[in-house]
User: Which sequence fits this backbone?
């Protein structure tokens, strides 16, 4: 079974430039997550999709970050304009479902290799 | 609000010795607990999870973890460590059967296994 794919693996940009990251989840996984992992910290959830709808984007800095999952499969995360503090690894993850009858599912999240962003 | 603490930034053990990586959590209600491992320049790999049932959970690569509700802990263990176990380990928690489904991660523990 193919895992979560992400590209590019590395990106270096100047502050105030824009950048986009791409994610292809595991086939059949309805739920897709974007995380930000700053050096020395654990991953922090930015946004969660169920199919092509947003479940939670409460921690997404919406003045500069945007994400979409138009056809319920691939997803793109964009930063415009980038700031120095956006330097981090951006991880994409997927799971089978967000919720089941009686509550949110316990399905495991599987992570991609990440994109390391350096903002100069 | 839910949170995870990994009290040790680094754990160093000799190959063949037992390995323990500590994790304590805070969450409303029953917790769902997870361990992930991250190798350099790689994403997080799932090791094991506790949802309900037996407090001792067995996972990948010979790892296991014990859920202790009274101590709010979920320590990761391996009876005999290998050099290849050297990596960054993350504990994560979410509140079970609630609308707060976000997974909260600890800051990570770097494990070094010396030959």
Assistant:
């Amino acid at each position: 079974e193919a895992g979560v794919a992400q590209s590019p693996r590395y990106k270096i940009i100047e502050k105030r430039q824009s950048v986009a990251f791409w994610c292809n989840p595991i086939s059949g996984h309805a739920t897709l997550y974007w995380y930000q992992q700053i050096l020395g910290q654990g991953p922090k959830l930015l946004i969660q999709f169920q199919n092509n709808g947003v479940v939670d984007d409460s921690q997404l800095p919406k003045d500069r970050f945007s994400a979409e999952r138009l056809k319920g499969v691939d997803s793109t995360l964009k930063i415009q304009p980038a700031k120095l503090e956006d330097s981090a690894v951006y991880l994409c993850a997927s799971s089978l479902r967000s919720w089941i009858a009686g509550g949110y599912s316990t399905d495991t999240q599987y992570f991609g290799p990440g994109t390391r962003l350096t903002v100069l | 609000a839910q949170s995870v603490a990994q009290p040790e930034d680094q754990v160093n053990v000799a190959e063949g010795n037992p390995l323990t990586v500590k994790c304590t959590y805070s969450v409303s209600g029953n917790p769902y607990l997870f361990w992930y491992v991250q190798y350099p320049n790689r994403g997080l790999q799932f090791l094991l999870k506790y949802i309900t049932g037996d407090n001792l959970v067995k996972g990948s690569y010979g790892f296991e973890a014990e859920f202790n509700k009274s101590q709010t802990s979920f320590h990761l263990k391996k009876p005999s460590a290998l050099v290849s176990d050297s990596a960054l380990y993350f504990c994560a928690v979410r509140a079970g059967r609630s609308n707060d489904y976000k997974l909260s991660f600890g800051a990570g523990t770097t494990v070094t296994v010396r030959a």
In short: The first strand of chain A starts at residue 5 and ends at 7. Chain A touches chain B at residues 4, 6, 9, 40-45, 48, 56, 91, 93, 98-99, 102-104, 106, 108-114, 116 (CB under 8 Å).
